[in-house]
Design goal:
alpha/beta, homodimer, 2 domains, Aldehyde Dehydrogenase, Chain A, domain 1, 16 helices, globular, Aldehyde Dehydrogenase, Chain A, domain 2
């Protein structure tokens, strides 16, 4: 039995117990973990420093970028943020044990649908070492066991975080084995095959990385490979708003998935709007690539190719296309977009409604920046990820994305034969006020 | 462009419109369809008679079973049931457009999470011709386009149903192209590759059939390949109840996925219970295969092998194992089960709770027959299928399983830059009473 299989087996075993650990014990473990992170800054930074030294050697040999090393680096402030994040996860409501549906099927036959953990989550992420404590805290809170696979360049930081989390939480009553670390790169390929033990994969990293995982596993994957977000500036847009929003969505943080990549501009306002926008973009050093009409209106810019409409730049580059109206905009987005986040700027409510309902994306916005598309901003408490898939979870996903549900049916000798044939009893299907919690309380008395 | 691709493309196009068709138009189309089925019994039966003749030729050559022909056969009663089913789907509440979450992020910045169709559903099913109108009605009601692939043996019945549904619903205002029929067997393989156009596959058929589909596509699959259901008869069971439930769960309809396949019996009552149960089973011609202890208690039965614990008989066969207690039972089920439906018979509430929370299956029952695990019985209105996966939907799945959600964010020039840095505005995250329906009403006025 390979190392990964035995770790996955242990995680599966632990997950069955973890599913029934109380909110109090889970939150207690999270608060102790936050404290342990604050109290162990020195060993964590020491481990990180080793990773940094290794990475810097690779920078010298031209194998890694300086930006990479920056993302890899931990410091006191970052560790304080990590501890704060763990504490905030402890404060979130428990997503487990919620009664989603409760109905009496017949006298003495009660059905409860209750939220429960998925089981074992496989988290695969690239170098940033603060992802490990974040995804671990989210899994613990939602009662899931987790198998972690971090980037090779952050391996000492990951090990240090992993050991601290494992030791602290297991001492605080979380079932032994609930958290597992996988290190070798070839072990990822093994993980992707373990659909018997792993219920959900949560990849965190670049587009190619996520695409590789999606293409090489039959385990469901929660996440998105890219965000090709659009803003359509309608003929009836408030142009001042449009300028601010187009600027914010591109410039405020261009390296993220909810930044805008393509603007679609109604031809009736293109001449008034584009030169002013181009001026603001120029000052922020945004490169513009335009369609034929845009190129005519803004001299000295590059022509956008078919490829540009399909590209997530994640950089200070934007493509612009002049369109005939909202239908054209919707068509363009549904053809070239990635179903992530798209916005319309308009004062016309009917046009807005056409766009909102016609664009097939996880978030569709009116007169707001695409950058709002985020679990924290949406008030979901914590963000597990943003899903561009339509199954299980769509858009920014909170803790709920790490849960599933289970039906409990409580009878008193009920058999199906009585509900069949000419003298069949009929079902009452009467909603119940009682929640699953109440049942558990009564049953615990015995 | 192959035939399947162009059909899938047409379905995708239609799905974008169908997503916004009103409840009234959808229900109207369903009621017209019910009527059309009643009014077209003769051509439907004629098409079916051709299929039956073809199938009977294959029976003579020993290539099909008589039972197969029975399942293939339509008659006036079955068609009346089909029309009734379509009418009942019209009467169900619309699963689309429900506001799942509504929160003010800040003044004038409102977020709505709203249920919406998944898009394009691929339905692949074996011979029973009444599956086609059922899955079509469920897709229409939930605003999804559907690509249907039925069994070759039922192709004329499927064509007749398909044409009737297409013509009736398109005349009633459902977007052209929303329903597509794929016929050749090689086209299934093509369908499985169309993850660009098909959002969800719903297979209906035997275990091998579903397993084949799951193994050969990256499109999410809703369904289950098998139901290895268990009943654990505890030391503190009411033995009369246990007898009735074990009989019902095996004998009432053995060919279905929620029939019981393995009994686990507490050793303290095995000697009292098993001979009585065996007597009832013998009268119903149920073959018993037992563990060593069961074989000692019930002379003349076969010994169960390791393979028996993993087998879904779908027949009048049952395997029985004597166990030491509830923990053993839970372990056995989590090891050999299929996460479908399992039950405990006991009067001890603490033991019951241990079993209910410890068994990792989509439905777990107390003192009731596993045969209750079904969308209609659970009060879900209609059953799309039973999912043994944990992602997206679990257990009996109603129309909700054919929906996803979409976030709408309505702002008034809001940008993210204002919520960042030392002078950052903060989010209010105040729940909204307003529903998305209300927004649509106001926006439609213009």
């Amino acid at each position: 039995m390979s190392g990964v299989v035995s770790k996955a087996r242990a995680a599966r075993r632990a997950s069955l117990q973890l599913a029934n650990v109380s909110t109090k014990v889970k939150n207690g473990a999270l608060l102790k973990l936050a404290l342990a992170i604050s109290n162990n800054k020195r060993p964590l930074l020491r481990a990180n420093a080793e990773d940094i030294r290794g990475a810097e050697r690779l920078v010298k040999r031209g194998k890694l970028s300086g930006a990479f090393v920056q993302r890899l680096k931990l410091n006191n402030d970052k560790l304080r943020d990590v501890a704060g994040m763990v504490r905030s996860v402890a404060r979130l409501p428990d997503p487990i044990g919620r009664t989603l549906y409760a109905v009496e099927l017949d006298r003495g036959l009660e059905l409860y649908k209750v939220s429960c953990p998925i089981g074992v989550v496989g988290a695969i992420f690239e170098a940033r070492p603060d992802v490990l404590p974040q995804i671990s805290a989210l899994c613990l809170k939602s009662g899931n066991a987790v198998i972690l696979k971090g980037g090779w360049e952050a391996r000492r930081s990951n090990e240090a975080f992993f050991e601290l989390i494992r030791d602290t939480t297991e001492r605080a009553g979380i079932p032994r084995g609930w958290i597992q670390l996988v290190e070798a790169r070839r072990e990822v390929r093994e993980m992707l095959k373990l659909d018997e033990f792993i219920d959900l994969l949560v990849p965190r990293g670049g587009k190619e990385f996520v695409k590789y995982i999606q293409a090489n596993t039959s385990i469901p994957v929660l996440g998105h490979s890219e965000g090709i977000c659009h803003i359509y500036v309608d003929a009836r847009a408030d142009l001042e708003q449009a300028l601010d929003i187009c600027y914010d969505a591109k410039v405020q943080y261009p390296a993220v998935c909810n930044a805008v990549e393509t603007l679609l501009v109604h031809r009736a306002i293109a001449k008034r709007f584009l030169p002013r926008l181009a001026e603001r973009y120029r000052r922020a050093r945004v490169e513009i690539r335009g369609c034929e009409q845009t190129v005519k209106l803004l001299r000295g810019i590059k022509r956008a190719t078919e490829m540009d409409w399909r590209t997530e730049y994640l950089d200070l580059i934007i493509s612009i296309k002049v369109v005939g109206g909202v239908e054209d905009a919707i068509d363009h987005i549904n053809t070239y977009g990635s179903k992530h986040t798209d916005a319309i700027i308009t004062r016309d409510r009917r046009t807005a409604l056409k766009f909102l309902t016609g664009v097939d994306s996880s978030s569709v916005m009116l007169n707001a920046s695409t950058r709002f598309s985020d679990g924290y901003r949406y008030g979901l408490g914590a963000e597990v990820g943003i899903s561009t898939g339509k199954i299980h979870a769509r858009g920014p996903v909170g803790l709920e994305g790490l849960t599933t549900s289970k039906f409990y049916l409580l009878g008193n000798g009920h058999i199906v034969a009585e509900y069949i044939g000419p003298k069949a009893r009929s079902f009452t299907h009467r909603p119940l006020r009682r929640k699953w919690d109440d049942v558990v309380r009564v049953f615990n008395v015995g």
